[in-house]
Hints:
alpha/beta, TIM Barrel, Lyase, Ornithine Decarboxylase, Chain A, domain 1, 2 domains, 11 helices, elongated
Amino acid sequence: MAVKPPVAVSPPRAWAEINSSALRYNLRVAREAGGCAVMPVVKAGAYGHGLEEIARTLATEDIAFFGVANVGEARRIRNAGVNTRIYLLGATWSEEREEIVAQDWTPCLSSLEEARHFNVLAAEIGTRLKVHLAVDTGMGRGGFVAKDLPQILAELLTLEHLEIEGLGSHLPSADEDREFTLGQFACYEKVLAELGGADRFRWRHLSSSAGLLGYEAGSCNLTRPGLLLYGVSPLPEHQSKLKTVMTLKSRVTLIRTLPAGHGVSYGRSFVTTRPTRVATVGIGYGDGYPRHVSGNGAEVFIRGQRFPLIGRVTMDQVMIDVTEGPEVAEGDEVEMFGPNISVAELAVKASTISWEIFTGITPRVMRVYL
């Protein structure tokens, strides 16, 4: 029986190139800016960059914790063979806590109910669980209300199977409201002093990316960089310090010349006014490229030149006016965002934020690690 020759595997239509060297460089920027130990935030698939691969890369960089949103993310890091300590950034619910204790992950506490339950679970297996207290200095999402925590600490200290080693808070407006943020720093320092001072807690943390770039650390000795690790500064004046980590790419799949008066894409929101050379590119909102950039001046980068997107973004394809680029050909690589078209620029044109663009890149986009 004849053996069939192997079938050729086609190159991807859409892929994201992840530059690990740039990631490490941005981590060094975070370290130098904060002057503290670092907890890289790798929730939401490391902001769409690929949880396991990013965790393996950063685990070699002498970091204190990985910050995750839930036990599923913590489990994936452990299953990837990474043994760095894991910190759960938000409140936990009762059905998650047994696994957290068994795996020795570090929760932040927002209520006495959480604390008591963790204490019981730790007692059952004869361990002492390291925990951090979350203090709400203005975020309103979780944590003990700042004015209440000093009174609550006395009861927390009676829970013998908990080791309270950290005090954390979060800044909701560090990139928008400096006065309010400075007030949060002051509130944190006041609570810290009321709880026994910096010597009382092994880990003290407040700042995410905007906080560590734009403010003094105070008594904190740990920072939680997220967005800046992935090459985007929430404070534009610091953008030049960072390197691009993700470049989202696609390919030209078709080129045609349309006559004047010809509609392009759904709804005919764009109609040509001249003979127009149109390149169809194999990416769309099904890949996470935002539909809301349609009609808002979005551009792509091909062969060293910017070209405008025309018509509405569709699920799997977008159309580009390459009339001014006669050399553009089928198969050409197209940068949707990256070093030449920043994700921050794209986010503005989509009326959203860089965080949402990154985390919205869907699984069918292949991640390629450089």
